[in-house]
Design goal:
The protein is an alpha/beta fold and 148 residues long. It is built from four helices and eight strands; from the N terminus they run αβββαβααββββ. The strands form two sheets. The protein has a five-stranded mixed beta sheet with strand order 2-8-7-4-5, with no helix packed on it. It has a three-stranded mixed beta sheet with strand order 1-3-6, with no helix packed on it. The longest helix has 15 residues, at 2-16. The chain is globular, with a radius of gyration of 17 Å. Bound molecules: zinc ion. Residues 28, 63-64, 130, 132, 135, 139 line the site of zinc ion.
């Protein structure tokens, strides 16, 4: 009997949940800067994130990505692992480090862009960085997920 009640509640919650669609655009330039350093969304929002590289330098010299890390990630330790992962465009390939990634774009060069979509997860502060070697100290921001 208990099980039946729980099921009914879950169905209702699903019906009344209004997932909002949010669009966020972040630019990265040849000066190693993101133009957006704070993003706020609500738990459950469907987020479209567009990364635009507004510079002219190629990917090998000034590559940018947006890697959103789960709350509580040691950013410096993650970035150190990431910069060694040249073969996978600076996305750590080992399972333990990969676990820390909530979502990510691909690496783009001047004039390129990439779009990703994700559903905002558990409330918290998600730091996002560019994992190209040497960039994360300047190129980072925080995606705040508010509770519903
Ligand atoms: Zn970068």
């Amino acid at each position: 009997m208990k099980k039946l009640i729980l099921t009914a509640v879950a169905v209702c919650a699903g019906t009344f949940a209004h997932a909002e669609e949010k669009k966020v655009e972040i630019s990265g330039n040849d000066q190693m800067q993101f133009d957006v350093k704070a993003i706020e969304v609500t738990e459950g929002d469907k987020v479209t994130l567009i990364l635009k590289h507004t510079g002219k330098l190629p990917k090998v010299a000034m590559g940018h990505n947006v890697v959103i890390l789960k709350p509580g990630t040691d950013i410096a330790a993650f970035a150190t692992k990431a910069m060694q992962a040249a073969a996978t465009e600076y996305l750590p390939a080992d399972e333990e480090t990969k676990e820390k990634i909530f979502a990510h774009t691909k690496l783009v060069g001047g004039g390129e862009e990439d779009t990703i979509t994700f559903t905002a997860g558990e409330p918290g502060a998600y730091t996002y960085i560019c994992t190209f070697p040497g960039h994360f100290a300047l190129m980072q921001g925080v995606l705040t997920v508010k509770a519903k």
